[in-house]
């Protein structure tokens, strides 16, 4: 390469180039979404893939980078939208990818460009946020590294990524049709559990031998994590199940939990780790066991009575062949119904002492949300304070910034429920709920507490586990309790010292979970149970804050219903 | 009811009301499109339904009426569009319902209003024209009566309607994924044939007894046509198969063919009638057989080697119980591969002597279309003159009336092929074709001949039957031939005396079919093979004529891609 011009100018230009390279980068991805036959658990099924894969490609960036994802919808008849789970979308609320809340769906054949800054290092997820497409295979991992020179409060030699999922053989259309039916038809427990998109269905359980189930299909050979004896590894673990809470463990290896949802954790050691849909963790594992063999990595269903086989992968001690199966039985995990074990893990997760971000000491508003299973017009639904969520076809973000009346119910949803008299241990005495598209409008920059209160479902002696996920924010986890939250007593127990910040948190059976967040991110944000079918059946609310501060919306998010008119010529 | 005002005014108003009621009416329908489990052939399958039914409700109107259909898309993630097959949409080209050609698809949750005049009595069909939704169950019948006082050239005591279809147990998603795969994966022959949405799958052929296949399900009890001995009936018959050509017959009863695609036929008597996808007929049947028993109505696959059981319904002689099965075997129809029989039926269909509409004696342009199976970039496709059709995501009608460049390929597609040297009896020597979105632009009000030329597929000694359907027009059927069309010889054989007008016509194996139409309907019109998978794989062309005469397009057809911008605020 020959330079023209003065040597000084050349040197100056080179210095500028070096300076820029240390600056934030733009990470560019192209996602082509299409149906494709895959056999993730050896059973052939039509899968929604990204660039021919499920899970899709990892998005890898460094804190402060801008990520640009050009999503081309190659589905035949279906629209889509992708949510960047855990990314707060500060300044880009239109890139949150939540159909009905922040954007119109991306029509077949169209391309939509998501562009957002990953402002905090950590482990995140992306997944479809439209219909039940997440469950059909549209998901993947986001890994954001610390900026060059920054030091994390733990060390490791190398890192590995794990994304776990549950999997059904029935299509999401069939599942959704069942959920909408009267009487409600549930698809049942998953056929298999997947680690990095691979599981193993017992083909011989099928009524006849069939070419659609083939245990020798290389597409369902187990995932392998190769480690070098004596080295230390960071495993980034993301849980993107549609239904199941899972327990993850490496046979014979303890794990030190160091990160949760992008925040540093006060390290604690576990033999196995409970994972709720939408959560991410990093754990440190030392390859310090007998190096002459391989070990199992395993996932087991907890919090629901399992009828799905343990999901397995191979922890491969180099130089053993990856295909060499461990001589043992994969860990079975804890008792599925030992709520105390899971409760205790939840309360063990605190902010790392060097990374505590203290919460505001008081809140301006408390929203108490009773989680119940209900019926609306004969349909089985989930409701918060007896209101079951329905999303409008014109997204709130568009409706609110364009003063479109009648798009959604403007009556505010209830702030609380009759907590003095409601019996959370019993089937609702009146199971009827109402459907509404109403939203909570929060004062900008105010501090909001949300208390999630669990209760009995429509079945006797049953209360389910709900992983709640908040868009656009991290919240402080102020506490968990068993039984009914009593404002006059339980507020005093809040941890204001070292609460972890998270974006997803479990609500345990018959228990409560208390969160606090600052309503400081202009936009409209979903807060919902991350179980695909529960959200589909109305288990969510929507928060608006500072929507008047949201600048001009990109044309590209418009395009449904009357919002077509808003696009500028 | 009390009238105020002068008695004279009241009488005058009443007279006006009576006069108006004799005028054209508006027929208003509401279609709610949704997935629902149905068991049309006793096997439970997720079906696209209209108001909970498949087939959907009959649309019934009188010639000159305006039909308004408010289509609400209740599918979860999928868009839709409905075509009114056989309705020419004179003055309303935007209501043709052809996604990619005349409108953007109707997004989930949205409502689109089709409004059109049914300007000619006859039997027509409606069906989805998007993806493969027609095959998933979205179809029904349109019956347009003659105006009050008008006399048809045949008489009958009562009428009955029959719509026949083929049915698969695999979802259309699975079918489409197979068609798009390399190598091409074909779903195979249908599992059953349906008469008015009811068939009978042999559940015992399944590998195990399963609750999803239940022969006692009332949803798959056979369709019944009750007749009174001695009376004469008009049977309106519509064929909406996705693949199969069918042969229809009533056991022991001849049929007199009197209408085809809305045009009166010079009556001819048949024992059974070949039906191609997209065709409609009326036949006259006298209930003149032994009245002590019932008879079979049956459909059998022709033109492809059948592996699907005969589809049956009951011709019920009153007062025999409808459930009383005939003591006989249902008619098996003619030999499936007897092309001559089907060719002869095609040539027998002429215009009724009192209803001949003479065609223009010459044409201004002849387009000769070689029908071949090809490969494009490794994909199996169908092509016309080696061009395989792809539809743009912004419909032609919108692009052409708004001068949107780059939406489609503006290079004209080929007018002909090398008919002197091409060997139609052999596999294409070069099977490679190209894909294109190019269209034929026709001079307004000109007369156009189209010669469809069949040929060998990619398999040796195989030429398939293709039912070709033209939107926006009826064409005159000038002739059929076996072998290769020779312009210097075969034009002389054209029937210019009494050709029938139709909108759908078969192209027989290794044969040709000649059509003539006037390009006098301003708009953009698809012309394609009506086999769902063939059209999906590129077997179609598009005609534009007088698009500059199309008035202002309704906003509602906009909404995809850049056409969002065209909606008026």
The shape of chain A, in one word, is globular
CATH superfamily of the largest domain in chain A, called what? Cupredoxins -  blue copper proteins
| Residue-averaged pLDDT of chain A | 94
**Class from secondary-structure proportions of chain A:** mainly beta
Tally of strands of chain A: 32
CATH fold assignment of the largest domain in chain A: Immunoglobulin-like
Main sheet record of chain A: 6 strands, mixed
* Rg of chain A, nearest Å: 24 Å
CATH class of the largest domain in chain A: Mainly Beta
Q: So what's the oligomer here?
A: homodimer
Helix share bin of chain A: under 10%
User: Spans of chain A of 5+ residues with little confidence (pLDDT < 50)?
Assistant: 1-5, 16-20
Range of strand content of chain A = 35-45%
Count of alpha/pi helices of chain A: 6
Number of domains of chain A: 3
- Largest inter-chain contact set: A-B, 40 and 40 residues
Short recap of the structure:
Two copies of one chain form a homodimer. Chain A is mainly beta and 569 residues long.
Give your account of this protein's structure.
2 copies of one chain form a homodimer. With 569 residues, the first copy, chain A, is mainly beta. Chain A folds into 3 domains: 18-145, Sandwich (Immunoglobulin-like); 158-354, Immunoglobulin-like, CATH 2.60.40; 356-566, Immunoglobulin-like. Helix content of chain A is 8%, strand content 35%. Chain A has helices spanning 7-21, 172-179, 339-348, 396-401, 487-490, 532-536, and strands at 26-38, 45-50, 59-62, 66-73, 82-85, 111-117, 122-128, 139-145, 158-167, 192-195, 224-227, 232-239, 245-250, 255-260, 263-270, 273-275, 280-286, 295-302, 311-317, 365-376, 379-384, 387-389, 434-436, 440-442, 447-453, 466-470, 475-482, 501-502, 504-507, 511-518, 523-529, 540-545. A 6-stranded mixed β-sheet of chain A has the order 10-9-12-17-14-15, with no helix packed on it. In chain A, β20 and β21 (379-384) form a beta hairpin. The first copy, chain A, is globular. The two termini of chain A are 45 Å apart. Residues 1-5 and 16-20 of chain A have low confidence and may be disordered. Chains A, B: Pfam families: Cu-oxidase (PF00394), Cu-oxidase_2 (PF07731), Cu-oxidase_3 (PF07732). Chains A, B: Belongs to the multicopper oxidase family.
